[in-house]
Amino acid sequence: MKEYNLTTKMRSCQWDELTEEQREVVRIAKEQTENSYSPYSHFRVGAAAKLANGIVMRGANQENAAYPSGLCAERTALFAAGAQYPDQPVVRLAIACYTDGHFTKEPGSPCGACRQVMVETEHRYGDKMEVLLYGEDETFVFESAADLLPLIFVSENLKG
Ligand code: THU
Fold first, then answer.
1. What is the pLDDT of residues 90-106, one digit of tens each?
2. Which domain holds residue 129?
3. Beta carbons within 8 Å of 59's beta carbon, 6+ residues apart
4. Does some domain include residue 5?
5. Residue 72 CB less than 6 A away from ligand 1
């Protein structure tokens, strides 16, 4: 038997340690929490996806009385980007979470399905997508979505 330790490469940044490009998407993700439709969880998530052409696609979680019919903020932004600008790589994605009257202190943590979609987005365009998870106390920065999902499943895996 072999045992492996998988490591995740990430940075924890304070606001003044982020670049202006990074702050731009974080600011928009924070604004986007206002567009969350979350009458069931009251957990507002905003997302901002910066495309190579400079456009920022905006997302927010959209819930539904039939719970599984809702969608996370990240996927609303990434799917809208794919649907409207299919030829534009996503260079950067930020998310922010707001509940109980304030942004979360801890960085938001994307669910497994969103991580899978992030990795597909990155793979689709053949380049890294930077991911920023905002929290009031610190922002986590991942150079690549793949860093959020070890042992990724991508198109090559379908070939056996
Ligand atoms: N949610 C997101 O929008 N993104 C995530 O990465 C985690 C969870 C949403 C889904 C649901 O509307 C609410 O947060 C509570 O789970």
1. 999 999 999 999 999 99
2. 26-153
3. 32, 46, 47, 48, 49, 73, 74, 75, 76, 77, 78, 80
4. no
5. yes
